[in-house]
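Running this now, will post back.
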Amino acid sequence: MDRKLTRQAASRVPRPLAQALSVVEEAAQGTKLWCGVTAALARLGGRRGRRAGTAGLAAVAVAQLVSNGMCKPLADRPRPPKGWIPHDEVEDRPDSSSFPSGHTAAAVAFAAAAAPAWPLVGALCAVPAAVVAVERVQSGAHYPSDVAAGAVIGLGAAWFTRWSPRLLRRCRSRSVPACSYGWAHHVLTMPGVILRGRGGTRARR
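Update: finished.
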């Protein structure tokens, strides 16, 4: 299935559309597009814009770490054979592992992370994210399964950046009272020390 879809995407996408896809992909390369969107949101969107942009970039950082820093070295999957790709865009692809698509992971992460803070921004960013995903297959840089894996990583990164602070606060709120109680219990039950009465009268054995 990967082979069939890769060949079809590379050969059946019209040339003008392929060029438009490449323009969007080049803008997203190196997170330039998402940094630009974040700057625009911070300037024009007020507090909600800053929240959406910050969440998006945080998710991009997590997605890039997982996809490029962890998964690619482990998978080490070769890129689609150049013989399958009937155009010269295949010459511009990197030599790193094909699995997963880091571009797709970053694009999906930004759109999904920005959506809770500003749904309209998330919906608008989903358009270039989809374009990036299609272009990565059409250009011969990735298999469809690479792109699907990148999308899953992007969604996971968006979920992580949204919920991890809340989970951390919840864990801290639960652990601090327990630690405090354990410390107090240890002091009160030390040999030779007993606290009695409301006034805290101390007696030694």
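The longest strand covers residues 194-196. More later if anyone needs it.
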